[in-house]
Amino acid sequence: MILNHVFARDAALDACDTAIYARQYAQAVNIAEQHANQAEFWLCKGRAQSALEQHKSAEDSFKQAIALKPQGLDLVSAYMLLGHTQLASKNTKGALESYQQALKFSEQQNMRRYVRIAHNLIGEAYYNNGQYAESLQAFQAGEKLALNDDERADSYVHEAMTYQQLQQLDHAIEYQLKGVMMLRKSATPDQYAEASLVLAKLFIAKKDYVGAERTYQRLMEYAQENGGSFYEAKTAIHWAEVKRTQGDAAGAETLLAQADNISQKIHDDELTALLAKARAKP
């Protein structure tokens, strides 16, 4: 009988999770409400309510999950999810307290991966609240716990954007460049490309047009070698702006023509809008 109960609970929890992945949020809530004495189902219910942007209800569900005294990852997840909901409700103070609790319990249970995640969540909350010095400190703590190139790249990119807000462009460029180098080895092509575009913008902000053009050149070659027509065109559009800034109208026009040719082939709305904006500039 005990085994049957466990199997039934696990099947119901799987069904609740599956309903969320299928965006059948009302169904997930209905399943969860049939198991109101178990924290895992309150977490599932809260996730469904969050997806429906029912933030107050979701917050109540996550608090109820915590009140049932879950253990291990469920407890850490409950505080992280609670923090997300509080952040969505503009309750930064509450979110930071929840993330700090997630950090505390992760550390107590030697859950290194989740300690790192908690530090990053704290950093993002501070960042969104304009507390950049505190944000940087949290991201740096997370970086020390990175175990692979993906995690290191994530930390570097977060630190770079924070240094930018602190108006420390040299540090921002340094860390964004480190992130880009890691992403080239381990990330998807679009992640690498977007990070490279950010790096180029940092060079432009410093008026280092040589650095920006070098970044665009590397990204253009990468896109061409990896069949990334969209990013080849997007790079050309942004690169054209640098050419125009330096008085190279012919070079800018060549790049825009290259992007236009690709845009006509792949019919992408974002490229169309970017081209129209670029063409409208004097």
Category from helices, strands and their pairing:
mainly alpha
Report how far the terminal alpha carbons are from each other. 77 Å
The arrangement of helices and strands along the chain is HHHHHHHHHHHHHHH
Largest sheet: none
Task: Report the β-strand fraction as a percent range.
Answer: under 5%
Task: Note the total helix count.
Answer: 15
Key terms:
elongated; mainly alpha; disordered N terminus; 282 residues; 0% strand
Task: Give me a quick take on this structure.
By secondary structure, this protein is an all-alpha fold.
Describe the structure.
The chain has 282 residues and is an all-alpha fold. 83% of the residues lie in helices and 0% in strands. The chain contains 15 helices and no strands. The chain has helices at 2-21, 25-33, 39-51, 55-67, 72-88, 92-108, 112-128, 132-143, 149-165, 169-186, 189-205, 209-225, 229-245, 249-266, 269-280. It is elongated, with a radius of gyration of 23 Å. The termini are far apart. 41% of the residues are buried.
Helix and strand topology:
Elements: H1 2-21, H2 25-33, H3 39-51, H4 55-67, H5 72-88, H6 92-108, H7 112-128, H8 132-143, H9 149-165, H10 169-186, H11 189-205, H12 209-225, H13 229-245, H14 249-266, H15 269-280
